[in-house]
Give the backbone structure.
Amino acid sequence: MKKTWAMCLAACMLLTACGGGAAEETAAAGGAASGETAGTEASANIKDEIIFCQGNDLTTLDATIGQQERAYSISNNMFDPLLTRDSDMKMQPCLATEYEWADDTTLKLTLREGVKFHDGSDMTAEDVKFTLDLIDERGALFVGNYDSCTIDDDYHVTVKLNSPNPAFLSTLTLPQAAVVPAEYDEATFGENPIGTGPYKLKEAVEGDYYTVERFDDYWGEPAKTQYLTMKIVPEAAQRTMMLETGEVDVAYEIPNNDISRIQENEDLQLLTCPSMKIILMELNCSSDGPIGDPNVRKAVECAIDKQTIVDSLLYGYGTVSSNIVPQAAEDYREYETNSYDPEKAKSLLAEAGYGDGFELTLWTNSNQTNTEIAQVMQSQLAEVGITLNIVTQDDNTSFSLIEAGEDFDLMLDFWQTNSGHADYVFNGMLLSSSVNNFSRYFNDEFDATYVEYASTGEGEEREALLKELYDDLVRDTPIIGLYSETKVVAATADLHDLILSQIGAHEYQNAYITEE
């Protein structure tokens, strides 16, 4: 199958180089039609800097390593992958303009010509081969399926896989699959990142702020705003206050109880879009205690009224999740789940031999929303005879304890399907070998089914294998999806054309602020 994307490519070149369309009302600041936006921009002065703030510091400026949203919130504007997804999670061209499957395991890529890195060097097939080999060497993304990349000429490469893998293209859209120069040096790249994106690094003060500036030799339309600065502001309430006083122009991770305050302020605006992020609870399947019993895990899910959590704590800015795969992801499927049913929960507990009640401990961080979720679940589980003890600790502490083999019952967590494909969930969280298998879900049958699914081309056989994977998750309940988060961004009313991303890689290339 060959994809030329001719019409889409033209649109991307005009509106936004590697992301979503320009005037999607649920995703773009201002919600103006393109003609109106153009007129506004032409008749107004534009500030030379946009300042946004978020709660956590970057983990790194090296896009190939920074897998967290807090890292690629800025690096996404400095780097480009081969393929990307728009604000509706539809795949689009980026540094690759065409792809063709020559056979089930041979992928041919045509690369964009005229692309320069921030150091002035040209991007060619040599850099793409180096990047793909680097990803494979690190092991996590390609999971042993990548065989080789052959340079056909400066702007064509051939990728060989060890077996068919329909999800491979989705992997190439990940922020950490950004193309880097063949001269890449991991030891220094985090301090001197060199990408092909519309912005390049100007200044970085770890733990405080990061400033990038417009890259004038960018292959697409140049960024409308000269500078983009990200400030680190850990306190959520302070982020709202800084927006109100004009210290920042955009604020991420706004507390839900501040939303109405922003909506009532005529100088501010609230931007939202769906999300690939699901708030969930991991259950210790290998525990010797009650939670090690699949019937107990099912009962826990049946005892939780997820709609109450969304309505009472999120003010409606979320969607109940009966699945740990987001609805917008490829290979998402509807299936029968353990829906809210307290009487069924009691029956399952009696069947498991725990009808007289017992205690469980939940680990969570001190995030206000998480704390409130934990308290609601504590009340709901009490109704079926489960006493829930809440332990508040830093996420890194929880992860370290799990990795060290510490016993636990439940952990409140989240997962963001950055690739836009269900494979990212199965491979990332549920295989016995998964680094993020915090549920300690060790199921040889699930592993074997996944390997067969991942290496089977589209069709009835793959669909049957996919159903088996979903059936296993319902039967074993290693993870409980609570709700799909809605991305909420607050901004000055004078901000235009910020393109929101369902994975939080918001695009500032076309964004600008008008001023008197």
Summary: Residues 252 and 489 are 5 Å apart (CA to CA).
